[in-house]
Amino acid sequence: MSGPSSQAGPTPEPPLAAGLARFARGLRADDISPAAAGHVTTLTLDAIGCALAGWKAEETPWVLAAARRIGGSPGLGDTTTIIGDDRAAPPLTAVLANAYLSTGITACDVYIPSHCHLTPEVVPAALAVAEAEHASGSALHTAIAAGLEVASRLLRAIDYAEFRRRGWHSPGVIGPVGAATAAGLLLGLDEARLRAAMSLAVSQAAGTFASWPTTAVKFHQSRGAAAGLLAAMLAREGFEASAEPFDAPDGGLLHSYAPGQRDLALKDLGVEWELEQISIRLWPGATPVQALLTALITAERELPAASDVSEVEIRVPPPIYAAHRGVAQPAGTFEALLSFHYAAAATILHGRFGIDLTTPEHRTDPELTAFIARRVSFLADDSVPSGAVVVTIRTRDGGSRVLRTDHALGTPQCPAPEWRVHEKFLSYATPRIGDAASVLLDRLAHLDDVPDIADLLKLTRPGGLGGETR
């Protein structure tokens, strides 16, 4: 009787969950390409900078109050940092708070192909575990890279058009998996336990666009981070979960939320880095509004004075028009950040755009509201491609100027220079933590050299510079 054939053919790919868990568990710092590693560094420091600015979001006090109630009264064992606060908190409280803070002013990252904000889920969950475990900056960096890549791969695999048609919001569905991956690695989970953590994260996947355009859509990021932390902690205790949460015919993520191409999640995994497709938002504002702000703020020539402008015509793809047309005169800060009308008027009137220009005083400024009502037109245009905007500024003397942006600054197609990202960080961090901002930026820019994340996070607290010198 002959033995097994020596020509059995290529080894089949592992099931999706096993393949992703094997990749994440085996990832080492040296495995990450220099470009991907640099982008992880940028995304991490940007997330922390956004969290320091998140205290300015008008709804932040409500979220922090709820998070503290969930965690209970302050105790002696509370050791987890809430970024920008001087009071420690239980891990769940800190993760809920930090995740919301990082998305609070609508300036966090975004994976545009599947419209998912990822660092608000992945980074806070990773930070909480890294602080508790006194992990090194290198370990944190590798864990965040794994979490972002696993989540990005799943986002690449889903059929986003169908996913969106069904009303799902991706940060609450996919984000928990990235958070669980990063937290699980820092907890030292083996491959089987890491796969269980991913599965437990999928079992908590939720979040729909029924929340649009309220701030509840931002809470999907906060809950996603907490779900990922809970999944990793349960897996560490030995809690069992489905071995294949993504591709299972009955209830698997790809079958239930949207059909997808599972092969795209594993194709060239560890060779090509999907996380490099995650964009940075350089200004507060919805993702499509970034193209408008790019056109206005980075224009080669100075914009005409507001008093000389007779009309501002903004043309966008029809789906963007449908989503944003109803917030011309915003009722709150979040609506102002979603409004093309408001962003254009405020930028032209002030020569810049920031969260400070979305306060009630600015939103009700008669000059600004009149400018929107009389001089800003917002139009759907089939000829404008996805991600683009065309702005025509007409002046009272009959002049006309067309500004077109095909890709916002900070996208993979139009990367942001390092100085702009660092400038954004310092402008967000300095008002909250003062001189510690520049020290924190330097540490985050060289994260691999940080011996203990617990010490680094002390710099995020007001007065955290302590005895250090610049």
Indicate the topology.
Elements: H1 16-26, H2 34-53, H3 60-71, H4 91-103, E1 110-111, H5 119-133, H6 137-157, H7 160-165, H8 170-173, H9 175-186, H10 191-202, H11 216-236, H12 253-256, H13 262-266, E2 278-279, H14 289-297, E3 309-316, H15 318-324, H16 333-338, H17 340-350, H18 360-363, H19 366-375, E4 376-380, E5 389-395, E6 400-405, H20 418-433, H21 436-445, H22 453-458
Parallel strand pairs: 3-4
Antiparallel strand pairs: 1-2, 3-5, 5-6
Helix pairs in contact: 1-6, 1-10, 2-4, 2-6, 2-20, 3-4, 4-5, 4-11, 5-6, 5-9, 5-11, 6-9, 9-10, 9-11, 10-11, 14-17, 17-19, 20-21
Quick summary:
This protein has two domains: 264 residues, 2-methylcitrate dehydratase PrpD, CATH 1.10.4100; 117 residues, 2-methylcitrate dehydratase PrpD (60s Ribosomal Protein L30, Chain: A, 2-Layer Sandwich). It contains 22 helices and six strands.
Can you describe what's shown?
The protein is of the alpha+beta class. Helix content is 50%, strand content 6%. The chain has 22 helices and six strands. A four-stranded mixed beta sheet has the order 4-3-5-6. Mean pLDDT is 94; it is low at 1-6.
